[in-house]
Amino acid sequence: MEGFLWILFSFLVIQRLAELALARSNRKWMLNRGAVETGENHYILFIVLHSLFFVSLFSEFAFTSYHYSRVFYLSLSMFILLQILRIWCISSLGRRWNTRILTLPDEKPIKKGPYRYLPHPNYVIVFLELLFIPLLFQAYITGIVFPFLHLLVLMVRIPAEEKALEERV
Q: How many domains would you assign to the chain?
């Protein structure tokens, strides 16, 4: 079981690094098309939050004894579902998906995929990931602290995104 979890941990780190590379590529693409970037001041909060999440997850898992629990299968099922929803969010936005706030002038927000139903579905998914991923690893402190911190960062991020969407030319 622990071997599987080390593989899963490695997958998560690689996935997040790949998403940052995709975001960087999409950012360049959007800026070349006249996109305006806002919210740069708080972007570091996301970097710190998610970096510390992995440090905390690693620390709790590596330095405490792991005991199989029935919660594992519920958490694994939720994790798989959340990954499918994550991919749906990213693919729905296409080249406009980013970890930063970028708006293209004269372009309306995308309202397809999960964005038809929720204004910020990716943030809901990330919140749930920050709950369920730690449950897989029995990293209970991480599972309590980081969803809360995520909500605090979103109190800055979502208003900044909404303002950027309202102010685009």
A: 1
